[in-house]
Every structure is written in structure tokens, then in C-alpha cells.
């Protein structure tokens, strides 16, 4: 297991300017700056990912879809994205996937490896969806399985929206367990995870954390995981513009700490990705993501 507890990964290409778009894709540089202002984390080395290799993309995505994506063409395969399609956006996704692949590789040396990007959990093998062009977690899991066929990967997805892409991709893989806890009456069209928890609007901290604890205890009994991929969406937040869950900033950090303690109790590594966050006050989204870093970085 790991000598150093937490590795942080970031690339400036994560950052995008999408004026007027609900997806605050400039949050990544703000989070990086927040880390660099913090007295604890300012001196830490932040690791630089490379762009994901084409061969790794093909572990999950079809050649036909990738051809359309890299031609920047609006086709039936790319049209379900809610983002523009151009070179800088595709490059951003390639670095974001590279960050999650790097985090997966670092799980041999670090108990927690944190990609300050990624979590593109709506992307399917043959199409884009939502704000997701490439599925970083699925690619990282499949790549890890090439060298470690005995990996039993647990995907814990606590974004506001169901991780439908991962649920679909791994639906027949008994060595990957998908768990998604999300607002039930929202986008997207649901796929079937190994464990889905559909939350009602106005769910608050105590109920949320109790359900999460119960779910993790059930997973402990049902699946012998040896690595966790945690999709740590900021959007269950009580002032998120796209959701109706009522989880406080404090409750979200307690959520993150619960996932950390779960990984520690199993003595297995955890790869963390950011995923969504659309707080009405943009600074809240950045702070929630920073709190996730501190939840995994604190001694």
C-alpha cells in the first residue's frame, strides 16, 4: 500500500471558458489556485498528466464515435453532448481522462490519488451525453484490468445525477460494482447499477448520510473490492442550480470523509474525481471541491 497518503493531479488544459454556460468549466483553475493559496497544500507537488493515448480510449469507446469526436463533427454520436465541440474542448477531455488514468496508476503508491478534474460519468461507448465526451473512470478501470486482471473495482458515484455511462459500460462485468446515489427524478435516463439509490427532492444531511452509511455497509457484504473510484460531485449541494437535494457544505465534507473511512477500513486505495457542481454562487462549487481534497488529505 501507499507510502504517501494523497497525490494531487492537475493540468491547465482542464480549464475552459464557456461564457453563459451552466457548466462552470473555469472551476478547475480556481480550484488549483485555492489549493496553492492554502498553507497546508501550497508546497505540495501537483502532478501533471499527459493526454490519454488513443489505444486507451478504444478500451471503452467505439472507433466510429472517436472518429466523429476527433473530426469535431455534429453527428448522431456526438449530438447528445450539451457542450460545444472543438479542438480545445476535446483536448481538455483527453487531459482529464489522462488525469484519472494517472491517478489509477498512482494507486499502487498512494492510498488516495485525486484528479482535480474528470468524473465524466454520462459518456457511453458510442456516444457523448450531457457534459461528457469521454468516460475517464471507465477507461482507467479497463486499463488497470489489463495489467491487474484480479482488480475488483468499486465505483462510488455521489454526483447529483446517476452515473448512467458507467452503469451501462460495466453492467455485465462481475469484477466492477457500480453504486450511484442521486436525485431520482432528474436527468439522465437511468441505466441499472449494481446498487442505485434514488433520493427524493429536499433530502437533507442526516438522512443522506444515514442512507450512504447503510449503502456502504451493504456493499461491504456484497462485493470484495480492492480499489475504489469515487465520483465526488459537488452538485448535491443545497444551493445547486440544477438540483433539489439539500445537502450542506458541511454534510458534503462528512460524505467525503465517510468514503475515505470506508476505503481505510478495507485498506484499499481510492481514486477521486470531481464530476459536477453548479452552485448559484460559483465560489461554493470551488470550496466544496476543495473540501473534498482536504477530506482525503488531512492526517
How would you explain this protein's 3D organization?
With 299 residues, this protein is α/β, with parallel strands linked by helices. It has a single domain, classed as Arginase, Chain A (3-Layer(aba) Sandwich). The protein contains 9 helices and 8 strands. An 8-stranded parallel beta sheet has the order 2-1-3-8-7-4-5-6, with helices on both faces. Helix 1 links the parallel strand 1 and strand 2. Helix 1 crosses helix 9, helix 4 crosses helix 5 and helix 7 packs parallel to helix 8. The radius of gyration is 17 Å and the shape is globular. The model has no long low-confidence stretch (mean pLDDT 96).
What's the SSE blueprint?
Layout: E1 4-9, H1 27-37, E2 46-47, H2 54-57, H3 63-70, H4 87-106, E3 110-115, H5 136-147, E4 153-157, H6 164-169, E5 176-183, E6 195-199, H7 205-222, E7 227-231, H8 249-266, E8 270-273, H9 282-297
Helix pairs in contact: 1-9, 4-5, 7-8, 8-9
Can you give keywords for this protein?
alpha/beta; 38% helix; Arginase, Chain A; 8-stranded parallel sheet
Using only CA atoms, what is the Rg?
A: 17 Å
Average pLDDT rating: 96
Biggest pleated sheet: 8 strands, parallel
By CATH, the superfamily comes out as Histone deacetylase domain
Mass-distribution shape? globular
Find the CATH topology: Arginase, Chain A
Number of domains: 1
Helix/strand class: alpha/beta
**What fraction strand?**
5-15%
Q: How is the largest sheet built, in terms of strand order?
A: 2-1-3-8-7-4-5-6
Q: CATH architecture, please?
A: 3-Layer(aba) Sandwich
H and E string? EHEHHHEHEHEEHEHEH
Instruction: Output the number of helix runs.
Output: 9
Q: Helical amount among residues, as a percent range?
A: 25-40%
Show unreliable segments.
none
The level 1 CATH classification is: Alpha Beta
Number of strands: 8
The separation of the N and C termini measures: 16 Å
Family: Belongs to the histone deacetylase family.
Domain Histone deacetylase: 21-280
Protein name: Putative arginase/deacetylase
InterPro entries: HDAC_classIV, HDACs, His_deacetylse_dom, His_deacetylse_dom_sf, Ureohydrolase_dom_sf
Amino acid at each position: 500500500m501507499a507510502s504517501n497518503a494523497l497525490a494531487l493531479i492537475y493540468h491547465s488544459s482542464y480549464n475552459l471558458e464557456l461564457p453563459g454556460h451552466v457548466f462552470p468549466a473555469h472551476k478547475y483553475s480556481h480550484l488549483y489556485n485555492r489549493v496553492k493559496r492554502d498553507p497546508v497544500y501550497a508546497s505540495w507537488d501537483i502532478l501533471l498528466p499527459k493526454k490519454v493515448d488513443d489505444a486507451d480510449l478504444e478500451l471503452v469507446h467505439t472507433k466510429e464515435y472517436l472518429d466523429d469526436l476527433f473530426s469535431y463533427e455534429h453527428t448522431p454520436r456526438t449530438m447528445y453532448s450539451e457542450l460545444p465541440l472543438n479542438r480545445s474542448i476535446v483536448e481538455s477531455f483527453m487531459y482529464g481522462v489522462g488525469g484519472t488514468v494517472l491517478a489509477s496508476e498512482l494507486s499502487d503508491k498512494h492510498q488516495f490519488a485525486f484528479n482535480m478534474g474528470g468524473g465524466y460519468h454520462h459518456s457511453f461507448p458510442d456516444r457523448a451525453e450531457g457534459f461528457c465526451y469521454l468516460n475517464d473512470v471507465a477507461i482507467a478501470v479497463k486499463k488497470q484490468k489489463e495489467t491487474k486482471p484480479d482488480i475488483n473495482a468499486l465505483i462510488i458515484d455521489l454526483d447529483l445525477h446517476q452515473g448512467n455511462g458507467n452503469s451501462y459500460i460495466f453492467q455485465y462485468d462481475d469484477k466492477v460494482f457500480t453504486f450511484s446515489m442521486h436525485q431520482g427524478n432528474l436527468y439522465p435516463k437511468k441505466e441499472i447499477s449494481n446498487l442505485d439509490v434514488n433520493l427524493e427532492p429536499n433530502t437533507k444531511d442526516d438522512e443522506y448520510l444515514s442512507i450512504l452509511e447503510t449503502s456502504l455497509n451493504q456493499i461491504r457484504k456484497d462485493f470484495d473490492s480492492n480499489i475504489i473510484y469515487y465520483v465526488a460531485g459537488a452538485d448535491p449541494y443545497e444551493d445547486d442550480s440544477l438540483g433539489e437535494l439539500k445537502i450542506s457544505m458541511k454534510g458534503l465534507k462528512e460524505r467525503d470523509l465517510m468514503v475515505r473511512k470506508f476505503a481505510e477500513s478495507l485498506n484499499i486505495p481510492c481514486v477521486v474525481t470531481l464530476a459536477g457542481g453548479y452552485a448559484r454562487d460559483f465560489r461554493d462549487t470551488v470550496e466544496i471541491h476543495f473540501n473534498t481534497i482536504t477530506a482525503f488529505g488531512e492526517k
